């Protein structure tokens, strides 16, 4: 990567900066795989105004990348050039008002599901099965167990590449399966969600069901990145991977989970190159055996 002092340049350009800004910051500790290189500069804004001010000061030629809880992310070993934004405590609030929930983009999905259950709001239990944060769930229209973000979103708020505020209704999001149409340059900051009044015992039973299903079928105690590939239309990714003979397949210390073939795991000493390379080998074998092209659901950023 470049030898410029991006963090220093931004501190000088934004003397009123209130968040944390660190140069050459390791990113592996922030990912569930625990692999990958460093950010050229890592910024944790204090709040939306702080984020907007810094984005407005970043020259257009410098890339800006946002990360969340790192649950569905591969940071490549060469690191991430430009500014990496990681939303923290200033974006983790959760407020309940009737059947509405306002949540910051850094709020973990599971905590939003818990807040909804405590308030007897139905429609949020699926979030219990999605590792990650609300901000990460929006671009992928994350879903599980019969629910997805499109079903509960009222509006999403964010900041664009120039620091300008943006607001999107559910229709504006252009949701489809594991996708939304909003520009990836927008950093989501908070959302308004809506469920419906429900029965406390029934909601808790649904939460327990989601938890049990996840623990029984997914390698949640491993260093993993969650679901690796999106399900192709009419197919289950895990079945295609299994039929291609990839269950337990390894590359270096990366492995296709023997428990759930649509999960890759780091057995301890894998590099990001091992994990991504294993994923590409899985895609190749599935393509050869079924003629179907698997699409990565895990986000991959940085320089290989």
From TrEMBL:
Name one cellular component (GO) term.
Answer: cytosol
The FAD-binding PCMH-type domain, residue ranges = 35-213
The main place the protein resides is cytoplasm
Identify the PROSITE patterns for this entry.
FAD_PCMH (PS51387)
Instruction: Tell me if Oxidoreductase is a UniProt keyword of this record.
Output: yes
The cofactors named for this UniProt entry are: FAD
**Which pathway is this protein engaged in?**
Cell wall biogenesis; peptidoglycan biosynthesis
In its UniProt record, a GO molecular function of this protein is: UDP-N-acetylmuramate dehydrogenase activity
User: Mind listing the UniProt keywords for this protein, alphabetically?
Assistant: Cell cycle, Cell division, Cell shape, Cell wall biogenesis/degradation, Cytoplasm, FAD, Flavoprotein, NADP, Oxidoreductase, Peptidoglycan synthesis
Q: Report if keyword Cell wall biogenesis/degradation is assigned.
A: yes
Query: Which residues carry out catalysis?
Result: 178, 227, 297
What EC designation does it have? 1.3.1.98
| HAMAP family noted in UniProt | MurB (MF_00037)
**What's its job?**
Cell wall formation.
According to its UniProt record, which protein family does this protein belong to? Belongs to the MurB family.
Know the name of this protein?
Answer: UDP-N-acetylenolpyruvoylglucosamine reductase
